Structure formats: C-alpha cells, structure tokens
Give the backbone structure.
Amino acid sequence: MQKTAAAGLALALAAVLTATPAQAAAPTPILTPTATCPPPSAIQPDPDAEIPPINAAALRKTIADLPAADATAAVVRVGGSDGSWKGVSGVTDLTGKREATEHVRFRAGSVTKMFTTAVVLQLVAEGRLSLDDTVQSRLPGLLPRTYPKVRVGQLLNHTSGLPAPDLPGTFDYVYRTRFKKWTPEQYVGLAVRNPIEFTPGTRQHYLNTNTFVAGLLIEKVTGRTYEREVTKRILRPVGMHHSYLPGLSTRIKGPHNQGYQSVPAGFPDAVAYGDGHVVNMTEMSVTSTWASGDLISTAADLEKFVTALFSGEVVPRAQLEAIFTVPDVTMFDDCGNQPAIYTSGMSKMVLPGGIVAYGKTGARYGYSAGVGATRDLSRTVVYSVNSTDAKASGQNQRTLGIALAAFA
C-alpha cells in the first residue's frame, strides 16, 4: 500500500553510500537530533569525477545465483556513452521449467512517479499549470479547509506536508484486499482525514498521496484520464511499445515472470520454496498506487525513457531542471538533521568519489524495479528483480548490489 519508507536504488545509494538512513515508516514529529542520529554525509559532488568502465564481472555476480531465497529472477541493463551490458538470470516461475529472458514485462512500482511528474511539468511548459498554483485553487474541495495552501511544486518534490491514509501495514491485510478497487478520490479522501504533517515547503516526506493528487491535477487540467495522458504524451512518443498502465486490470499482459512474496508456514495459499514459503502475487489490483505506482514496463523501454527524459526530449529543458533539483529542507524524520534527497520525481545520489547520479526505484509485491543515470547519460542502469520480499522495510541487498556494480 502506501510506501512511506524510502528503499531501493535511490535510497540504497543515498542511505548506504552517503550514510543517510531510511526514513521513518510513519509520520513522526521532528525531534532534536541525538547521538543515535548519524551526521549528514560529508561526501561532496565532484564535477570532474569520471564514471569507471563497466564492470561486467561484478554485474554478473549480482544475479548469478538465481533463483535464490531472496529472488527468483532478474533482468539488468547497463548503458551509456561508454558501452553497455545486459544480463538475465533465474526462472519465469517456481516450476523451474523455463529460464527467464530479458524481454519480459514487470510491475515498475514507484518508477511510475517519474512519468506522473513529467506530465505535470509538460503542462507547466504549455502554460496550463504552474508549480506555484495551489491544490486548493485547482482542485477545490479535495483538501480540508483547515489545511494551509499546498502548491503543485510541493507535491512533486514531496514537501507538501500531505499525510498518508491510515491503513493496516500487515501483509495479511494486503493479501486479503489484493483485488480491492480504489478510486483516487477515495485514497486521497482517506489520507486527508489526518492533519497536515508540517507546514508545506519546510520538510520532505516521501508519500504516495502527493502523486495521487498530481494525477488528479493531470485529469482536471486536461479533461482526460491520467492513463491516456501518460500514454499519449510519453509512452508512444518515446517508443515504449511494451509499456502500459493497466487501470482496473489485475493481470500483466504478455511475457512476464511470476512475482512471489515470502510468508510464514500456514499462510493462506502458501507453497513451499526452498526452506520457506511464498504466495504468488503476480495478479493484484494496482489502484491502491495508481499514479504513484501502476506502470507495467520492460527494461528496454525504461532505458529508452530515462535516455529521452535526461536528453530533454520528454520535458522541455526549462522545466526539466526541477527533476534534478533537491529542495533545501530536511527530511521529516526522528533526527531532523538529514538533508532532503528527493527531487521532483527522482532522488539525487552522491557516490564515493563525488559521482552524482539520479534515480528512482519501485516495488510491488514480487517485483523490485529501478532506474538510474548520471545527468550526462555516461552511465544508465535499469533493473527488474523478482524479489521475494520486495517491500521489506530494510535495504534490498540484491538491488543494492546491482546499483553498486553499475556505478562503481
């Protein structure tokens, strides 16, 4: 459901490589930093830093042992101006009869936020919307009257202060309601029963609520569905022929790997896998994430997208700068001393040696995906890993390994 803990490539690199911890999984007040809170990272960007050559051996090692306890399959594409590497490992399903291939669709999860953000920035470029417009003026009645003004730009970079809905955080609840159909209005309406978390523009808290509201703005401004606008404005022009937004469908069309979630013995529908048990999560409703996480794509299509986006072919360069800009605020967490890491649509990562990369991860049960690149496109990486605990609160060591091998 609502993903409030930062994870995957963006946070893996930002948290592990720059000593920034994962954010709290629920709204918490800002407290005075204590000895348990690490200091902000001292690593500084180096504009002269050079990306090292692609380390094919390291990349092969990250996926060589699949299927394994933590994942059943993986597809990785590394590209850029100095060469490319492609790798695939694992099996399509637990029968083990068919090896995984690179040409498969997968649930991209929160990578979808890049597309939602891009469409909003296109509307800004067209003069149909402004980042300084308020949600209250554009979507009257959506937010409570007691809320302060929330600006469109604050939705995109997660500084709005909008809260998350109160929903059970257990996988048991997720499994029982996996076919439930949500409307965006229902989701946002449940979220804003809670008070605003902080004064808009003063903190950063990564929450799906922001992108839900952005999706509703797209529909209000264009008079057409969110799905149609993303397809017409991005998927078709970029040539992402194998990507689509499923709407109410619970299935993945075309070739795809099955996605599984680890569960305890005795869980409903569980089957044995290695020393544990899993349930099949391939089919489920994505209306609970909608404009925040419903995209179905392929590694090759996402590589096309990140290349086109960074090249200024998707969003005009004047508006594109927002995608590379981190607001000068701190995270909404227990420490209160950690600088923001999210841009509008992505995260900024400063790697050891001063290399700067930008990326976005996504997770749906059974599927972990990630996209990352240096701004000059000298290095790009896209991956899909069929993780058996894709939405765990800790770092996903498999995807972290892929990210490290791709950039280091």
In short: Residues 7 and 92 are 25 Å apart (CA to CA). Residues 1-12, 15-35 have pLDDT under 50 and may be disordered. The first helix runs from residue 8 to 17. DSSP finds 13 helices and 13 strands in the chain.
